[in-house]
Amino acid sequence: MMTRLNSGDGILSRRAILRGGGSALTLAAVAAFPGARAMAQSDADTQAGGDLPVGGQEAFSFDWLVERARRAAAEDYVPPEPLGKPFSDLNYDDYRRIQFREESAVWAGEDAFAVLHAYHPGWLFDTTVSLYEVVDGEVTPLTFSTEDFRYYSDARGVMAEVDELPGVAGFRLNAPLNAPGQFDEVVSFLGASYFRALGKDNRYGLSARGLAVNTATSAEEEFPSFTAFWLERPEPDADHVVFYASLESESLTGAYKFVVKPGRTTTMDVTLRLFFRRDIEQLGLAPLTSMYLFGPNDRGDFDDYRNRVHDSEALVVNTEERAVVRVLNNPPRLANSYMGAMSPQSFGLVQRHRDFDDYLDAGAHYESRPSLMVEPVGAWGRGAVRLIEIPSDLEANDNIVAFWVPEAEFAAGDELDTAYRLYWGMSPPGAESDLAQVSRTLAGHGGVSGVDPAKDRRKFVIDFLGGPLAELGGDQQVKPNITVSNGKLEEEVLQTIDPGSGLLRLVVEVSADAGAVVEMSADLWLEERRLSETWIYQWLRE
Q: Is the pLDDT assigned to residue 126 strictly greater than 80?
């Protein structure tokens, strides 16, 4: 449930993402994972609302953290101090040659359900976060030193004079995921409010964030940061991990609770309370960040042996009325799409093609990237899922952003109380529907194949597969429902390709004026019954 309290009535650059294992990083599009056990309390803790409940004070609780965030919102924001040398001397190659020592893992050897590793500060990560262990409400700071890391090659020289670390850049949790007794990486928090998780047999792909503030608006974008984490020590017989985080930015503060349960589909229950220091133009809840370079619907100018290069291929939005599949693009210019909804059932970025032959990439294995679905807890009211697509010529760039924008506005003094569940995995709930699915989208010049192309038109080929289509006889009168805005529908053809599997192909040809932003949708019907997901697409006519 989303509760908004008003003060008046009392109520892309580079990306910092892990490609796996914590030993190699690539770079972020929309923003600027551990032994010895303790780290100095950072300035961020003092700024974020007072002393910690350590040693004889009140027990730690989420309510305590919420009050801490509430108090901090009444104070001016103080940005954290950069670390400086020698941490700023670490470059990308140095940083990926620093590895956390497995034997230094927090909770290792205690038969715990999970263990915690820390990420070294430096390179892009020039500030630190504070980590605390919580046992029966009692809080103990976690500290780390250079003895908890291995340094290879030039990284050894850069860090030669350092013994104690000023803090860490983030953390990751390892737990049995792909095999019993095998501690695999499950979730990772590193950089601002970015985090990632894996389901069984996944490789890291898209990211989530704690919050998006003024993303792609006329106001300056903010990147709220998690400044401290409190992690409850899991019991040996546990099946989940609970931890908490404080969030800070110029315009707001926040208290977060995470409950992570690893599995074939890993779930993360997220509860948050936000307190606004000042008015903001746009709030983005449950933001997702991914990469789409090219695919059969949009190859661009890429001369590449691979069929597809993307971490996600579509945005899915599920409402009571329909399942919408918005196939992604790598546009020639910045593109925006809004999908209005009243309390959506779920939304997310999905990877549906799961065969190696779909990608032919023996290194990246894009077929193993997780889909991520967001399921609101309670009614979120009216708003829209916003999709931002950023032009990109490199697969290292995150160029896809999606989040929920509430219809309500937020001003200084307001509060927001809400929650949602994240599903990470090969086929999480909501990523696929019981209707005939949008299984493939192809695009090219209009006209008859094999003849002179009609370059003033664009042909879109949408394959719908399975669901009710597999149950229909060949004499059923299935009809398409097609809409085109800012363009003209020139031709439409519906063909049955394989009646046994329920594979139907819809071909549409569209024309438009140069520079037009053409919005299209299509689904299949039998009389008054919708048979398929609703395909949505945006074509930027050059």
A: yes
> Rounded to an integer, what distance in angstroms lies between the CA atom of residue 41 and that of residue 78?
15
User: Which of the 8 DSSP states describes residue 129?
Assistant: B
Alpha-carbon separation of residue 25 from 114, 123, 204, 237, 397 (angstroms): 23, 11, 11, 33, 12
Residue 177, SS3 per DSSP:
coil
Q: How far apart are CA 317 and CA 166, in angstroms?
A: 43
Task: Kindly report, residue by residue over 335-351, the tens digit of the pLDDT.
Answer: 999 999 999 999 999 99
- Rounded to whole angstroms, how far apart are CA atoms 436 and 321? 15
Query: Concatenated DSSP letters for 250-303?
Result: SSEEEEEEEEEE-SSSEEEEEEEEEEESS-BS-EEEEEEEE-EEEBTTB-TT--
- Structural contact between residues 303 and 335, judged by C-beta atoms closer than 8 angstroms: no
335, amino acid identity: A
Q: Is 365 left (phi over 0), alpha (psi -120 to 50) or beta?
A: left
Residue 130 to residue 167: CA distance in whole angstroms: 7
Question: Could you read off the pLDDT of 298-325 as tens digits, one per residue?
Answer: 999 999 999 999 999 999 999 999 999 9
Which DSSP helix (H) or strand (E) runs through 244? strand 241-248
Locate all alpha helices (DSSP H) within 282-365, ordered by sequence.
none
* Residue for token pair 């590895």: 99
